[in-house]
Design goal:
By secondary structure, this protein is α+β, with helices and mostly antiparallel strands. It has helices at 3-16, 21-37; strands spanning 47-48, 59-62, 69-74, 77-80, 85-87, 91-94. Helix 1 (3-16) crosses helix 2 (21-37).
Length: 107
């Protein structure tokens, strides 16, 4: 099952159980994180903004053909940059998991 399929199954299951679109998007991110923590590798594809969490979680945002930016939802708008400049993205994806520091055994 591809990453897109996993996202779609999680999101549609949550929507079928009555969660609003923004809440289902938030829970999809939480469940993806839990799967990653459990050792599953999920490549997170770009998703439409309807599925993006709106709870000030930082993520990558973009519009077609633009360089992705670090952004978040705040006061009813998508924002980015040090001053929280409003932007109008069409797609988002979670931030990648940071690399793990090498242990003495792995060096």
């Amino acid at each position: 099952m591809s990453a897109r399929d996993v996202n779609d199954v999680i999101y549609s299951t949550l929507r079928d159980r009555g969660l609003a679109a923004d809440r289902a998007g938030q829970m999809t991110v939480v469940l993806q994180s839990a799967l990653t923590a459990a050792g599953y590798v999920i490549e997170r594809d770009w998703q439409t903004m309807e599925t993006a969490p709106r709870d000030r979680i930082s993520m990558l945002l973009t519009r077609a053909s633009l360089v992705p930016v670090f952004g978040w939802w705040h006061r009813g708008q998508w924002r980015h940059g040090p001053k929280g400049t409003p932007i109008f993205p069409t797609h988002w994806r979670p931030l990648p998991t940071p690399p793990q520091e090498a242990t003495d055994d792995a060096k």
